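Dear Dr. V.,

Thank you for agreeing to look over these. As mentioned in my earlier message, I'm a first-year student in the group and I'm still getting used to reading structure tokens, so any feedback on how I've presented them would be very welcome. I ran two proteins. I've put each sequence directly above its structure. The first is here:
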Amino acid sequence: MTPETKRLDLLLINPGSRSQVYGRLGSSLAGIEPPIFAGLVAAVVRRQGYSVRILDAEAENWSPEYTAEKVAEENPLLVDIEVLGSNPSASSTPKMTAAGELARAIKQKVPQAKTLFSGLHPSSLPERTLVEETADFVCQGEGFETIPLILEALKAGRGIDESHIPGLWYTEDKRVKSGPMAPLANPDDLPMTAWDLLPMGKYRAHNWHCFDDIEHRQPYGVIYTSLGCPFNCSYCNIHALYDGKPGIRFRSPEKVVEEIDFLVKQYSVRNIKFIDELFALKEDRVLRLCDLIIERGYDLNIWAYARVDTVSEKMLGRMKQAGINWLAYGFESADAQVRRGVAKKFEQDTVARAVEITRAAGIYIIGNFIFGLPDDTLDTMQETLEMAKEFNFEYANFYVAMAYPGSQLYNEALSQGIPLPAEWYGYSQYAEETLPLPTKHLSAAEVLRFRDAAFKEYFSNPAYLRMIKEKFGQNVVEHIERMLKHEIRRKFV
């Protein structure tokens, strides 16, 4: 870079952590999702006149050292390392190990650049992140107001004043200082994601998302129609990214469809994820959005999150017409007492009804389950596995309960002295170092062993494979059989 070249104001980085988070599954089976918050921050900053670029080290599969070399080429004023995974609760904290390695590499290669951590994990533990990691600043919250104000202060050459920059954490004279929480953004005031700054050819959908066309998982895009969640499950930490409290802000259907139009026309995207924590909530807005999509006649393949106690037949029918082919339901456990123990309150007949009307609409189901919740026993976990097998969902995610920073389970684990992962990537579901929570009755090793056995039992079940063959063909059966050959190494089993 020559002295005459204008210096880049902001460089946003999605740190590369695929191998740490997914192990050997990361090379082919896992989805690769666009870092939408980085794209949103970039769009906000660019609208205010600052120059900005994004490096998606995860999509590019770059090491921290190579990414730091790319940062040196840009010589930015501010580097924002975004620690926010595609499944926010489950995949944000595991990225922190790679994010920390990247920050240290940047400080060695580009010592003149100011560094910032943002995203869900830094928002959950802002002071600890600031103290333990190599960073000048931590952003707590969304960053849409915080980051432009940091840039303004840096470009003006004046000192940072936390009273004028909400959401900012930094150190001064070895003392940690922080500003007030930043106000939450109105989604309709935000510009469209800066898709032009992302390597759109690198992203791919999850394997199950494309069971109807397994060879074409690209191109792929993600869209939000709301921010936040009105519920308060104790295993979830998503509220730490916002203001720490349950709540949801809706984006207008017209704005959502404007972005779908852009992705379809500019990048030929067919496979789309609605990243909302809970998409199927308010029937009237779901119907309005679906009608707008239907009017356009797109052949989309969309998936979204739903709850068994918020869907209706009318909503599901319209969703299927719009191309929402998959819904992920958080069943968590077959045992009502186990669910109530983590503030997930619905009855089993509600589950059966939701499954029935979802299938009647022609929508496939991803069943999400968590083994090792505080009240789980071997019997209740077996009951959960049998429930999954009985319903025979087109796909199932079997998680182990983790005390993610920012969640109620994390605070309880700290107060009770429960051992937690020694490294941040130990919070991953698929890593060799994965260390779940013990329950009141079971050790962490017993929970993890059960989970891995349950995964194999579910996906090798003859009834499941017959159903998959009937719906998607023999090639998908063979894909699943190849998936089962991937052994997950576990240190603690």
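The second protein is here, in the same arrangement:
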Amino acid sequence: MGEGKNEGVKVGIVQILICVILLGASTYYTQFSLVPIGTAEFVVPLFMPSGDQLEKIGFVNLDGDGNGLTYASVSRKNEIKIAGERGADGIYQIRSTGELITKKIINKEYIFDFTFEERKSKVHGYSKKPSEFYVKAPPLGDFAIIVEPMIAFSIISFVIGVIFTMVLTMVIPSRVGIMSAIFINQIKHTKASIRLQTGFSSDIIEILTMRNKDLKNFDRDKIEAAFRYIWDRTITEAEKEALDVSVSFDDIWDEETDVTFFRTEAIYHRMTEYFSGFVTTEIVNTRDARDWNKNKLFFTKGFRLFMVHYFSHQFANNVTGLAYGGAAILIIAIGIRGLKFIPAAKPSMIMGALFIEFSLLLLMAVTLFYTEEEERTDKMLKRMEDSNRSQLDALKAQQKDMNQLATALVGDSSDLIKVKVEEAITGYLQSGDQVNSQIAEAIADKIVFDIAKK
């Protein structure tokens, strides 16, 4: 009945190695390709000259090193010379000219350089290190802003790399994808958890968590037997006290019943009332995760099972602690900035602290999003009461059976029991002398006497 793909998968060196390679490559690409482009797309439109300013000065994209990430203001004459006329809308157009950045072309009023190239004042008209971004515009003050991307953006690059690596390893086979292997193992563990909480057999758990499409094609007789057992098992105290108005399984089940609809609307509902909403949530999320196991593009379903039933339970407090730690780092950075130990022209440390706190708050938000709502106390107490009553009924039945056994032991069959006990003890003593026979008889008399006394 079970799917082979739902068995546990061992996470080995292959998955770990591929994960590390993907994480390193994606982080590197983000830091040295996406970050410069993203920064340019954000900063340039905000601080570039516009309106009347564009009538007085030129503003072009100097594509000297082929990456299109260097912008500077130039004279109108140079703008026409190296970039051509503006568009009909009056907004500058970026032109790739192949011209190198030189101090003869730019006028130093607006300079945006998001490359990892070194600039020298004697040659380019301004200076910066390869590890720096250079931003100069009148709205930002008289001095240029120097941003060190390794300090300011490395954290967010790592976070983007982690997200990319996780998503990619969710959609590739489990033999090479670490997240795929973790999800499959989580399916197995959650099914075991459901079995422990409900006491149902593995075959019934399989039917409860089976994909809708697979359930429709499954043996209907086995489905009916499983549903009937669950129905009888989940009779509440209220139903027992009102047997004249309760609905039996046969009242709503027939050959035309849609098995998937019945499972969702009847079986899951009864299990929620008898056990708890958390158990039903485990079942539903496991069912959806098996959709992911069939089609890896549904990776959000596997991710939900992992987050709700493992990560949020195990690491919720750790994530909250990290978020507070990030806030502490940010407070220290802002405090140092307030004391003028971090100059306004070099905000890299402040930006790095902001991105740390942003990343941790994002992780905290995702964790909270996948944290199950706490169930109402009155409903929990009611279910505990029903469960205790059921256990009490079971104990009473066991007590009745024990009383019947005791009655049999001290009734007419006591002489027969005595003989059997004597024979058993004598056999263990493995001796035929008179002393051991008397010992066996005395022990048998003592057993029967103690039982009768009880």
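From my reading of the second output: The chain has three domains: 1-26+150-375, 49-136, 411-453. The two ends are 50 Å apart (CA to CA). Does that match how you would interpret it?

Kind regards,
E.
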